[in-house]
Write a structure and sequence with these properties.
The complex is a heterodimer. Chain A is an alpha/beta fold. Helix content of chain A is 42%, strand content 17%. Chain B is α+β, with helices and mostly antiparallel strands. Chain B has 8 helices and 20 strands. The chains are: A alpha/beta, B alpha+beta.
Chain lengths: 285, 325
């Protein structure tokens, strides 16, 4: 496998640049000020139905990323000790306190450097400076680019070669608070629901949290919201692609990037493929 | 991509700036349709000095309004409403006249009488008087005859005068001032003037704030005029604490009791994405039952002279209405 991955790295990652990926990133990333409260970020995410916001400082420079995982981090942290203060926390916590830092990259940087940086820091987003403008690209964008460019077809890698074997799952009768705890402890954004038919992501949790029903519950009875059984979140879970472990990675990623939850599971449900696994195509070290 | 969004960010800054400056000076009060009509009447009646005479007193001593206040309303109620508008800073008032009235029947047909402050006799005549150094008053006709002051006994030559004064023919007292009596021609009541009733009339005029309510093109004031004419009672700059503990100022709270409808307005120069998010964040945090006087169905409205394309769609996401002022 290592040899195959090295080969791909040499042929693809060194040839392409960040600029090549940028051409495939056709969506605008809304921004939020680092001093704005988390509730402001939530209403922007709700209004625009986007997965993430770029966090900017007072000079308009992108300094971080704010996504569902950050909301989960805040809610779980406060919910552990003072669930009654959850609503106030949304209004009083600045985005800066919970947002992620992000990589900075130039368009001329090689794809190899970009992905190496992402993998080294464990950050799935990077800010790309292109002239006067700034763009936010994530590992999903990199995966989409590699699928579209046909680069993945140049390797003989199968899904099992790069998929993660340790599938994180939760019982269906777990609560939302339990799920948040699992995501944070295991440092994953995708959790498989018991049975392997559904995957819930941090974005799915976010979509639920910004629904009118959940927002009102968070305001009026936060403990009840945190104890919501996952069974009640069926609207916000997604069906993963179920693929054979022998599926070629070009096919696997092609299916994966098509729709949420951007996840593939092997038929035995023992391996999971996510956009992050695209970083494994780089030679280690 | 981000260039467009940088513009958005800049607009956030502008929004915050204009929010800090707010529109024109706003005071916290409410306004009803009747009060708005009153302001209009005062404006139309005002003279060159900007003041209107709104009341007079008839022969019976009754204060009568010089404007139509309707059959069910009284001059006292009108006066209360006008004074309330003065308290709200929309009207100013100045002294016009003081009318004395009978202490018994309240009538204004009074005659004045003067009497001796010492014995009460009305037989008191005007006379020039001189003032001695000790303070004694000496009638003119006595000055030439006396050689010493009748009060202190010293030489009379040091008197100053003459001044206007009075000499009582009954008790011979000499006075600078007389007791003033009033007698009612209606009921015959008579007493010293201090015990008479009095009605103070004031003239009313619009303050700058009151005038701006009627003619200003400021979006908040234009909206207030419209809402009031539609039958809403309008409260401006309503302060309320959110469930999160954050404090907010709501630009306008309009209540129509008859139709069981309330509206909470946030007013902007231009209603766009940022403004709607600002409204949504407040709406989520505010328990409408904590806003005084609201009744029935409560709608949140983001309003402004301009509305960005697509704003309605975003507004719908948060159950917020959009209105053009």
């Amino acid at each position: 496998m290592t040899a195959a991955i090295s080969s791909l790295m040499n042929e693809v990652f060194e040839v392409y640049t960040v600029f090549d990926v940028l051409r495939y990133v056709d969506r605008a990333t809304p921004i939020i000020g680092e001093d704005d409260a988390v509730i402001n970020a939530l209403v922007v995410l709700k209004a625009l139905e986007v997965p993430a916001l770029a966090v900017v400082n007072r000079r308009g420079e992108v300094v971080g990323v704010f996504a569902g995982y950050n909301v989960i981090t805040l809610l779980h942290r406060v919910g552990l000790t003072s669930p009654e203060k959850l609503w106030a926390a949304l209004y009083k916590t600045p985005v800066y306190d919970v947002g992620w830092l992000t990589l900075q990259a130039e368009t001329t940087k090689s794809l190899e450097d970009l992905v190496t940086g992402m993998r080294a820091r464990g950050w799935g987003y990077a800010v790309v400076h292109h002239g006067e403008t700034q763009h936010l690209i994530g590992v999903l964008d990199v995966a989409r680019f590699l699928v579209s460019s046909g680069a993945l077809e140049k390797t003989s890698l199968r899904l099992l070669d790069i998929a993660t074997g340790n599938v994180v799952s939760v019982r269906r009768d777990s609560t939302l608070f339990d799920l948040m705890g699992v995501m944070l402890r295991r440092r994953v954004r995708r959790v498989v629901l018991e049975g392997g038919e559904y995957v819930i992501t941090d974005r799915g949790v976010l979509q639920y949290l910004v629904s009118n029903q959940a927002l009102e519950m968070l305001r009026d009875d936060p403990a009840k919201l945190m104890n919501t059984p996952l069974d009640e979140l069926t609207q916000y879970v997604g069906r993963p692609e179920i693929l054979s472990g022998d599926t070629h990675i070009s096919t696997a990623f092609k299916k994966l990037v098509e729709k949420e939850p951007y996840t593939a599971l092997t038929e035995e449900r023992k391996h999971i493929l996510t956009p992050w696994d695209i970083t494994k195509l780089l030679k280690q070290g | 991509m981000f260039e467009a969004k940088k513009g958005l960010r800049e607009r956030v800054g502008m929004y915050k700036k204009h929010n800090a400056a707010r529109f024109e000076s706003l005071s916290s009060h409410n306004l009803t349709a009747e009060e708005l009509a009153l302001l209009n009447i005062i404006k139309s009646m005002a003279g060159v000095d900007g003041l209107a005479k709104v009341f007079d007193v008839n022969a019976d001593g009754t204060v009568v309004p010089l404007i139509d206040v309707g059959e069910d309303s009284s001059a006292e109620e009108l006066m209360e409403r006008l004074d309330m508008l003065v308290d709200k800073g929309l009207l100013r008032s100045e002294f016009d006249a003081k009318i004395l009235t009978c202490g018994m029947c309240g009538g204004r047909r009074l005659t004045l009488k003067t009497a001796c402050p010492s014995c009460g006799s009305e037989y008191v005549l005007k006379s020039n008087v001189y003032v001695h150094g000790c303070g004694a008053l000496v009638p003119e006709e006595a000055v030439e005859r006396l050689i010493s002051c009748p009060k202190c006994g010293s030489n009379i030559g040091s008197v100053k005068g003459p001044e206007n004064g009075f000499v009582c023919s009954s008790c011979s007292g000499v006075f600078k001032w007389l007791r003033v009596l009033v007698e009612c021609l209606g009921c015959g009541w008579s007493d010293v003037v201090e015990n008479a009733g009095q009605v103070v009339l004031r003239r009313y005029g619009l303050t700058e704030e009151g005038l701006s309510i009627l003619v200003s093109t400021d979006p908040v004031k234009k909206l207030v005029r419209r809402l009031v004419s539609e039958g809403f009672t309008v409260m401006r700059d309503v302060r309320v604490r959110g469930i999160s503990g954050a404090d907010y100022v709501l630009d306008i709270v309009a209540v129509n009791v008859a139709h069981l409808e309330s509206r909470i307005y946030m007013v902007f120069r231009r209603v766009g994405f940022i403004e709607l998010l600002d409204t949504a964040v407040k709406k989520l945090d505010i328990d409408k039952s904590l806003i005084g006087n609201v009744v029935g169905n409560v709608r949140w409205v983001a309003a402004g002279p301009e509305v960005e394309p697509g704003a309605e769609k975003i507004a719908k996401t948060f159950n917020v209405d959009v209105e053009i002022i």
